[in-house]
Amino acid sequence: MDQAKIRNFSIIAHIDHGKSTLADRILELTDAVSARDMRAQVLDTMELERERGITIKAQAVRVTWKGYELNLIDTPGHVDFTYEVSRSLQACEGAVLVVDAAQGIEAQTLANAYLAIGNGLEIVPVVNKIDLPQADPDATAIEVADLLGDDPAKVVRISAKTGVNVADVLDAIVERVPPPAGDPEAPPRALVFDSSYDQYRGVVAFVRVVDGSFSRREGLQTMATGTRFDAEELGFFSPTMSPVESLSAGEVGYVITGLKDVSLLRVGDTLTSVARRAKQPLPGYKDVKPMVFAGLFPTDSDSYPELRDALERLKLNDAALFYEPETSQALGFGFRCGFLGLLHMEIVRERLEREFDLDLLVTAPNVAYRVSEKNSSELVEVHNPSDFPREIEEVEEPYVKASIIVPKEFVGTVMELNNDRRGTFDHLEYLSPERVHLTYELPLAEIVLDYYDQLKSRTRGYASFDYDVAGFKPGELVRVDVLVGGEPVDALSLIVHRDFAYDRGRLLVDKLREEIPRQMFDVAIQAAIGARVIARETVKARRKDVLAKCYGGDISRKRKLLEKQKAGKKRMKQVGAVEVPQEAFLAVLNIGQGQKS
Amino acid sequence: MGRGDQHGAYVDALLRELELEGGVLADPVETVFLGGGTPTFTALPELLRLLAALPRAEEVTVEANPETVTPELARALRAAGVTRVSLGAQSFQPGLLRVLERGAQPDDVRRAFGLLRDAGFDNLSLDLIYGIPGQTVADLEADLAEALALGPEHLSCYELEAKPGTRFTHAFGDELARQAEAMEDYFERVVATLTAAAYRWYETANFCRDDRRALHNLGYWLGRDYLGIGVGAVSTLGDERRRNTAKLARYLAGDFDRELEALDDGVRARERVLLGLRLDEPLPLAGLRHALDPAGLARVESLGLAVHDDETLSLTDRGRFLGGAVTVELLAG
Predict the structure, then answer these.
(1) Neighbours of A302 (CB within 10 A)
(2) Percent of chain A at pLDDT above 90?
(3) In this structure, are residues A62 and A238 in contact, taking their beta carbons and an 8 Å threshold?
(4) What pLDDT, on the 0 to 100 scale, is given for residue B118?
(5) Which alpha helices (H) appear in A385-450, and where do they start and end?
(6) Does the pLDDT value for residue A56 go beyond 70?
(7) Whole-angstrom Cα distance, residue A410 to residue A167?
(8) Inter-chain contact A521–B299, Cβ cutoff 8 Å?
(9) Which of A134, A484, B32, B288 is deepest in the core (most CB within 10 A)?
(10) A567 CA to chain B: closest CA distance, Å?
């Protein structure tokens, strides 16, 4: 195909603004999918995606429109996957920015628009859902045009649901989005913008060929990780897999690699030919690092092997998922897992529970810290509060740049929340007379603790929120240990800002006091920073535990009762001499996740 | 026995079972205990016919409800060789007796006690219940004082056990749950009051003066064999425990329909531990070591709940208050 006849584009939008519906209409309109075969929202393949209304993995579909080859590259819709979104955008020359005519610009509209502009993409602004009674297409078009410094007249007004004006979107793509600019004669280079694992065919790479061309059976190599393989099959999605003999500059398609591990083929890497090796990789490759960590433990310790297998299987398709075995004296054998963000964590957890039928205990999430021990200047990255040194020289925590859009009457309440969460005000701007865009710098740790729920409930659901990790900064952070009967409970240690240490410690101690059954001795429950106890409660010893009466007719029953109690003790977790039911940990871990103070 | 016309038939059935099973009894029999239900509700001639057929023993106890005791009954029991009567007093507070749905009034208890004394009984026991819904500390103290004023040789004090699913639990479950923690205090008060009055706390729920322990019950706690006769009666005979049918009609028809439970050495050893630790005397360890968990023993000793030497194991007072939990800790799992 003549490069001048190719258009590569993405659709970007805030959740529920109609991205997937527009994609479906485009497929129908270009006869890629007949209306009869149409499964609602073809591009979203995973069950979870469909339920949550978000898209996890990108795919690319080739359609033709008036003699042009259009490649629609789907992008993940959430901040946790910013890097993947940016790689998908890098594979395009243009982006269709969809904004709901009733909702207006939301936080992810902005984040995605900035990301697309930053990648040098031509933006085709679209106002969707103009058929809704509460839609205000004119006002929304002005908002969008303001954002892009564009003319409101250039904003395409559509209803993806009814199909009204969708053809105009395709025409606008052909007219405004530039064709790919790569050199078809140069040594081949292709950007890997996504990959997935198929249990029969191995790793499938989704690529955008930038220069040169690739042929079937050719020996290929990735430039950052150095992985080599033969291209078993090349092709594109239409939307079913359509094999071809070669893919050339400007085209988008897939490569079946036969590789058995997605980590060998990382998103953002550059693919080249072994025989005709390119000199320079494409820019922008990053080794994505997990930012949010939590311990995952099977509630039934016998399920540990199943959990291990399930994580292995997920990891095949999710290079960003990190895990390593973790042993907790309170929770037994499990894994410390690293995630890109909270949503990523939730998705992994739900898939483990739903697709693998596992019952999990998840510790309160924490972020990655960089910390140096007392009298040392070497910063070490720590992913688990129980690895956090008790005496520290210095500690840094990740910060995010948070972007919040709210109706103006909620500005005060959002500012209050952000101040409570150690936020630093950055910027305030009116998007319209009614809606305000606020930016703040916030510690990521403050966001992983129910920030989003708080934001939603305090703004009656009106706020939209997005964030971008903005590097590490020093913080006044301390490790709080929880001790039961003088023994630290590893799974309950946490890292908090010094100012919040007392409240969090008090909350944990109070909850544990309610949950730990009385023993044959007094049990002290303490929260401590190092050797300094900041909160303390006591579970008083039981003073009576007898079977009231026991005569000839009662003996069997009473014996069985005691035998049952004995068996019940085995299910208890032992913290030193104290027996703690697993439910107690569960209850305490729940407050760690459910509320702040 | 609720129905007068069946008393004779029931006594017939008892005597038939005794005839069949009596071969296992020692000669002489050490103790006889007529109880469970209320034997003294039985028509007197039938009761006397039963007593006459029972073997003579050093201790023959009959359980009696206070309102059933008449001068005639008291004299007849004495004449029939009964050595000990256990009176189900439960409480001396009319309100609490109503909660328990007892027919007796506080005066019935005092009157019955006097009649039995008059008939020559020098070994009388009173049952008291604490933890009755609505019972205050003052009520408990009054009950203990009333009981002590009668000077019984023996006292049994039980915490009210509300069985799940019963009408009683349905009516008072919430109240019982509310007062559960106060029961620690009540139990300590019972033991403190009675021991201060020179009663020996010889078993978890039993007290006596002048060493007048309930010899029959002592047999249970020492893990000895016993033969039980009657509807729902339980026997422990060597490596077997059996329970008669609880259905009166079946029993009267001579069909005991027994439920059997095999008792291996491990079970009997565990039972000896759980029963023996209820007593205030050291538990001899011979033959029981395999039933004990050494780590559990070390734990309860370090908590000051038990002490042991080469031959015996004893609970401290605090250990006895926690006897159930301590036993669970001590038993090998």
Answers:
(1) 7
(2) 57
(3) yes
(4) 97
(5) 411-420, 444-448
(6) no
(7) 39
(8) no
(9) A484
(10) 7
In terms of Cα–Cα distance, which of A126, A96, A276 is closest to A186? A276
Contact across the interface for B188 and A547, Cβ inside 8 Å: no
Closest in A543, A559, A567 to B321, CB measured = A543
Query: Which chain B residues are within 8 Å of A520, Cβ to Cβ?
Result: 300, 303, 305, 322, 325-326, 329
What whole-number distance in Å separates Cα of residue B126 and Cα of residue B131? 17
Q: Residues A459-477: pLDDT tens digits?
A: 888 888 888 888 999 999 9
Q: Which of A545, A558, A567 sits opposite B322 (nearest CB)?
A: A545
Low-confidence residues of chain B: pLDDT under 50? 1-2
Q: Are strands B240-243 and B283-284 parallel, antiparallel or unpaired?
A: unpaired
Question: Do B188 and A543 count as a contact with CB atoms less than 8 A apart?
Answer: yes
What HEC string does A54-95 produce?
CCCCCCEEEEEECCEEEEEECCCCCHHHHHHHHHHHHCCCEE
Query: Measured over all CA atoms, what is the biggest interatomic distance in chain B, rounded to whole angstroms?
Result: 60
Question: For residue A553, which amino acid is it?
Answer: G
pLDDT in tens, A75-104: 865 556 777 788 888 999 999 999 999 999
Predicted ipTM > 0.85: yes
pLDDT at B188: 96
Which of A544, A558, A563 is opposite residue B184, by nearest beta carbon? A544
CB A393 within 8 A of CB A376: yes
Answer whether residue A539 shows pLDDT above 70.
yes
Closest residue of chain B to A565, computed from CA coordinates = B328
Q: Determine the residue type at B307.
A: V
pLDDT digits (tens, 9 = 90+) for A488-513: 998 889 999 999 999 999 999 999 99
Question: DSSP 3-state assignment of A436?
Answer: strand
Tell me which of A60-69, A456-465, A547-556 is least confident. A456-465
Q: What is the pLDDT of residue A346?
A: 86
Contacts of B184 in chain A (CB under 8 A): 542-544
- Give the tokens for residue A418: 């952000």
* CA–CA gap between residue A557 and residue A550 (Å, rounded): 9
Q: What global pTM score does this model have?
A: 0.72
Is the pLDDT assigned to residue A59 strictly greater than 60? yes
CB contact under 8 A, B331 and A566: yes
Query: Do A329 and A490 meet the contact criterion of CB atoms below 8 Å apart?
Result: yes
- CB contact under 8 Å between B183 and A552, yes or no, is no
How far CA A540 is from CA of A583, B274, B318, in Å, comes to: 20, 25, 14
- A–B: how many Cβ contacts below 8 A? 102
Across-strand partners of A73?
A: A10, A60
Give start and end residues of each alpha helix (H) in B22-136: 44-53, 71-79, 94-99, 106-118
CB–CB of A552 and B324 under 8 A?
no
Asked whether A332 and A307 are in contact (CB, 8 A), the reply is no
Place of tokens 């690895």: A387
CB proximity A564 to B under 8 Å: no
